[in-house]
Every structure is written in C-alpha cells, then in structure tokens.
Amino acid sequence: MSLPQDPPRSFFPFGNPFRMISPKGTKLSPQLLAVLRAFEETLEERLKQLIPKSKDEVVSLSWMTSAMQALCESHNDIKTLMTDLELPVTDWDEKWIDVYLDISVKLLDICNTFSSELSRLNQGQLLLQCTLHHLGSSSSDQLFRACSSLDGWRQHMSSKNPRFEKCGSILDNLVESSDMPKVKKSAKGKVLMQAIYGVKALTVFVCSVFTTAFSGSTKNLIDMDVADDYSWAPAFKGLQNLVNGEIRVKFSSGRFTVLNELEAVDLSVRELHPIIQGVVHTIETESQSKTVEKLGRATDNFSEGLDLLAKEVDGFFQVVLSGRDALLSNLRSVTPDVDYILGGKSDAQLVN
Fold first, then answer.
1. What is the mean pLDDT of residues 250-265?
2. Where are the alpha helices (H) located in the chain, listed in sequence order?
3. Contact (CB, 8 A) for 152 and 131
4. CB-based contacts of 79: which residues, under 8 Å, 6+ apart?
5. What is the DSSP track for 330-342?
6. Helix (H, G, I), strand (E, B) or coil at 9
7. What's residue 287's pLDDT?
8. Which GO annotations describe the biological process of this protein (predicted)?
9. pLDDT of residue 113
C-alpha cells in the first residue's frame, strides 16, 4: 500500500532573507574575502562528498554517519572562523547572540530526540539477538521462543517514538530563525552571518532527513530554496534533490522503512518467520539455516551502523553544547547581567 505524499516544504516561503546580508554592495577587504571563500570552498567540498554515489546509499546508516560528521566539522569551522575574523564577543550584536542561543538549544533538543530513537532501535536489536540465540537449538521449545522474540521485534518496530511529534515544530523554528538580524556596519559581521547561513542550511537539511528517516513520514522533509549567489549552492541543490527525491520514491512505494540496513533486517525477519513456524516440530531445514545466517549478518550490520551513528550524534551534541557554553562564558566575563540582557535564554532547559 502506497503512503500519501506530503507536499514539499519550502525553506523560505517568503523569499530568501539572506539576500540582505550578501556582500553585494558592501566592500570586503581582500583578507575578509579570502577567509569567506576558504570557508565556503570547504563547505562546498563537504557537500559534494555527501552526494551519494548511487541511490542505494539513500538512506544508509553509513551515509547518515557521514552527514553527522559533516555537521560536526562545519560547526567547528564556525568556531575557527570567529577566531580568524578576530571578532570578539563584545562586538556581537545582541540580536546575533539571541539567535545563536535560540538555535543551539533547539539543536540540542533535536539531538536528544535522535539519541532516544537510536536507543529504541538498539532495544529492538536485543530481541533479534534473543531470536538468533534460540535458533541455535532445534528443540520445539526454543523455536517457539524464537517465534515469540520475532513477534516482539515486529511489534516493537511498529511502535512510534512520541518525541518526534515535536520535531516538526523544532525544524520550523530553525527555519524561522534563519531570518538573521540585518548587518549594517560590520564587514566581519557580514562574513560571519553568511558563513552561519551555509552551515544552517546544511544543518536543517540533515536534521530533516534524519527526522524523516526515523519517524517514517515525509511531513518533515524540507526542500530549501538556496539562492544561486552562494558558491556552494549547486552542490547543495544536487545533494538535496537526490536524497529528498529518493526518500519520496521509497515512501511512495510503501516501504516499511527508508533505512537500508533496517529494511535488510525486516526482509530477513519476514522470510524467517514463516519458516520457523512451519518447522516447530521437525528438524532444522537447510532453508532455515541459510535464512538464520542472513538475519545474523543483517543484524550485525545494523547494530554496527547504529553504534557508529550514535557516537556521531553524541559528538554533534557536544560540539553544539561546547560552543554554547563558550559563548555564555565569554558573555559573563564581560557582562555580569548577561542573563537579564538575554531575557533568561541562557537558562533555557533542555529536554533529555
């Protein structure tokens, strides 16, 4: 049964607010231009590396791991850029700080949601391990337990993670926060805002793909309308069109999941379940043995992919958290009443 298609979501329904911070009309020194170009060239190369070599890589856990690595590196690049620009926090506009802190707390929240889903998937792996353990014996009692474990896995995987119900609003807020404050006098500020825009575009894209893959719905899949003014725009559009397009094709075909490794496990489970049901009172068949081996390989591959991705998601959480803490520390060192100035945003609570 095919799933209904959700209409593509536009990143900027009212145009691109970042046109107002483009260096056009503002003379940047050769040094600032060099810094900006180096940053954007790195971002462009990173986007190109994320373009899958084939549709089979969409969406694999290995690709998702690479995407999360790209996010970590890009957010670290922003920290490096701030150092290269020699733009101390005392020169930051108050609105820039508010936006940065607001974005960071939302990213931390969505990271927690991803981590909770990875934990849920790992819990399902325990049921598969129990199944494989029971299948190590040909006794009817063990085969019955194997059937029970498989039924438990299928029931577990059919459940939904309630935390994804709020991911849509988080992504919407991230999109809305892309309307960065207008930079009037600071050339360094313009460079910083343009760099942040590129990283934010990558961040929203990756987070929307993760949310879609984990939640099993395309309603949170965002199509960003990036202006051609940016050198990295062609690579970004190529990446987005390929990944988002293939995800929609998979969902339209009624797939159980768009996660390749999880689909491989599910296919093995579907193949094994009727076999072991039919041989509960007989000796192990050759067909069962081959299918058990197939499930074992798929389970190991899925488990390994989950572990690697979980480490990267935690790494991204730490990158965002450390950047946020560093900014707040710098603000407190120069502004004692920082919590009052920021309207208490520095004390925003994270949902674990």
1. 91
2. 30-50, 61-85, 94-134, 140-158, 167-176, 187-215, 233-252, 260-278, 286-334, 338-341
3. no
4. 323, 326
5. HHHHH-TTHHHHT
6. strand
7. 67
8. root development; shoot system development
9. 95
Contact 143, 280 (CB under 8 A): yes
Chain-centre distance for alpha carbon 248 = 17
User: Which H/E stretch holds residue 276?
Assistant: helix 260-278
Distances (CA, A) of 202 to 30, 98, 227, 345: 27, 21, 14, 25
Q: How far apart are CA 268 and CA 275, in angstroms?
A: 11
The contacts of residue 35 (CB under 8 Å, 6+ apart) are 81, 84, 85, 191
**Residue 344: left if φ>0, alpha if ψ -120 to 50, beta else—which one?**
left
Q: What are phi and psi of 8, to 5 degrees?
A: -55, 140
pTM (two decimals)? 0.84
Cβ–Cβ < 8 Å for 61, 306: yes
Cis peptide, bond prior to residue 59, ω within 30 of zero? yes
Tell me how far apart the alpha carbons of residues 295 and 121 are, in angstroms, rounded to a whole number.
Answer: 16
Beta strands, E only, 115-176: none
CA distances to 115, 141, 264, 289, 314 from 259, rounded to whole Å, are 16, 33, 9, 26, 20
The residue count for the chain: 352
Task: With CA atoms as reference, report the closest residue to 85 among 206, 229, 183.
Answer: 183
Q: Specify whether the CB–CB gap between 105 and 348 falls below 8 A.
A: yes
CA dihedral 246, 252, 254, 258 (to 10 degrees): 20
Please state, in angstroms and rounded to a whole number, the distance separating the CA atoms of residues 219 and 174: 16
Tokens of 250: 């998979």
Contact 218, 248 (CB under 8 A): yes
| Token pair of 35 as six digits | 């810094």
Other Cβ atoms within 10 Å of 38 Cβ, number = 13
> Is 2 within 8 Å of 256 (Cβ atoms)?
no
Q: What average pLDDT does the chain have? A: 82
